[in-house]
Amino acid sequence: MAQLDPESDSDFIYWMGVYETHCLAEGQSLRTIQTKLCNISMFAKRCLANNISHINEVTKADVEEYKAYLAEYVNPRSSKPLRKNTRRNHITSIKTFFKELAYLEHLKDNPLENLRVPKRQKTLPTAFLSFDDIKRVFEQTVPYGKYGVRDRAILETFYSSGARRMEVVNLRICDVNLQKKEIFVTGKGEKERYIPIAERACQWLKFYIARVRPTLINFKSGMTLFVDNRGLKFRETQMSDLAKKYILKAGLDVNAACNVFRHSAATHMLENGADIREIQQYLGHADLSTTQVYTHVTNVQLKRTYSKSHPAAKSSGKSILSELARYQCDGEKI
Questions:
Q1: How many CB atoms lie within 10 A of CB 299?
Q2: Which residues contact 259 (CB under 8 A, 6 or more apart)?
Q3: For all residues of the chain together, what is the average pLDDT?
Q4: What confidence tens digit (pLDDT) does each residue in 269-295 have?
Q5: Which of 2, 183, 217, 233 shows the greatest Cβ crowding within 10 Å of its Cβ?
Q6: Taking the CB of residue 48, how many other CB atoms lie within 10 A of it?
Q7: What is the DSSP letter of 82?
Q8: Model confidence band, residue 30 (pLDDT cutoffs 50, 70, 90)
Q9: What secondary structure letter does DSSP report for 314?
Q10: Are 97 and 40 in contact (CB under 8 A)?
């Protein structure tokens, strides 16, 4: 969590602590709480810069000003402006913070009750590969011996299950059922689900668990399924680096890493007749509208296939003009 200046006389730190305790009591994940507190902390720093030291001094106008500030804010790490959905998340965190403090009766009135949160921007997942490309990525693991076997098992799991990066990182051996061909994952908001996995993925997992994992683990490994070269649980950034490494070695640059397998799996299933609600369950989406972006992706692919395969789509503009010249309207040629 980003910290405010402890020497300041602001009460934001105190109320953020109260809010953190409340979120934990509500059963929210540590990851979610940390993100919310970081967003609130950034707003609190802006308030202090504007001589607003206490939460009961905050008005809707202050948050509207902060919206404008975020719209012009440049991320110092990426040197890029914040994405629309990132800005929306910041404002949502602030609004929820005040709403919950009012609910707990720490605030007499909620000054942000009527605050408008920016609309969510729906973005299409553009990073996806054909199955042939996926197999090319898999092949890049061959030269790396036992580490290559582990990495192949990881990549096969990503594509077969469509699981998120955090879900794969957190897998334990007991979460894998090779007989039922499924894995048990804990996703966003601590939501749990079973995901079917393909026979080919099961075979790679079976070999990895029996022959490779025992050579990598140590007393710190615990029940973690996928361990790094030091026998430790993979960090999420490590997992992204691993996936990106093999994607680039395959000669592909899709500006994505682990997510490319998730997007590709969903797209391929949809193209092959899977129902959109089945895809929703498979990906663990709480809202069907999140899953429906994949229908737009398949529509894009359909247009590409159409332009290449439909005879009418292959007709040139010049041939149409030459045919138009044969027609007459009101006694005159077109």
A1: 11
A2: 125, 127, 164, 165
A3: 85
A4: 887 777 778 778 778 776 666 666 666
A5: 183
A6: 16
A7: P
A8: confident
A9: G
A10: yes
The whole-number pLDDT of residue 245 equals 94
H runs (alpha helix) in the chain = 12-25, 30-49, 60-72, 84-103, 131-139, 145-161, 165-169, 199-207, 213-216, 236-249, 259-271, 276-283, 288-291, 293-309, 317-324
- Tokens 């809010």, residue? 19
* SS (HEC) of 94-108: HHHHHHHHHHCCCCC
> Which tokens go with 328?
């007459």
CA distances from 263 to 96, 158, 217, 297, 300 (A): 31, 10, 31, 10, 14
Helix (H) or strand (E) segment spanning residue 192: strand 192-196
Residue (of 176, 269, 256, 154) closest to 223 by Cα position: 176
DSSP assignment letter at 8: S
Cα–Cα distance for residue pair 175/265, rounded to 1 Å: 21
Amino acid at 72: E
DSSP bridge partners of 329: 332
| Length of the chain, in residues | 334
Q: Report which secondary-structure segment, H or E, holds 194.
A: strand 192-196
d(CA 210, CA 237): 26
Q: How confident is the model at residue 317 (pLDDT cuts 50, 70, 90)?
A: low
pLDDT of 146 > 50? The answer is: yes
pLDDT at 124: 58
Amino acid at 78: S
Q: Which of 39-43, 221-225, 256-260 has the lowest mean pLDDT?
A: 256-260
